[in-house]
């Protein structure tokens, strides 16, 4: 499972931070940060989701009010949102 996070879309509500510890707050930017990720496009960050964190990652994506977080299965099919 893979997660993509669009930092430019993020509005800094930090609901994802409460759901999954891979997200942290960057109060200076007013944005969340996806830890241990790499930039795959301009402003879009991605990383693998560990098996034991899959549910947390899905909750983080579902709670994002602006759909800045997308979850994909191993075949690249979009799961959330």
From TrEMBL:
Protein name, UniProt field: Ferredoxin
Pfam families per record: Fer4_15
Keyword Transport found: yes
Coiled coil: none
Alphabetized InterPro entries for the sequence: Fe-S_cluster_ET
One Gene Ontology molecular-function label: metal ion binding
Alphabetic keyword roster: Electron transport, Iron, Iron-sulfur, Metal-binding, Transport
């Amino acid at each position: 499972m893979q997660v993509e996070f669009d930092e430019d879309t993020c509005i800094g509500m930090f609901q994802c931070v409460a759901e999954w510890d891979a997200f942290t707050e960057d109060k200076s930017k007013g944005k969340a940060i996806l830890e241990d990720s790499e930039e795959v496009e301009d402003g879009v960050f991605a990383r693998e989701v560990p098996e034991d964190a899959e549910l947390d990652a899905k909750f983080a994506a579902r709670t994002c009010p602006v759909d800045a977080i997308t979850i994909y299965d191993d075949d690249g099919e979009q799961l959330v949102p």
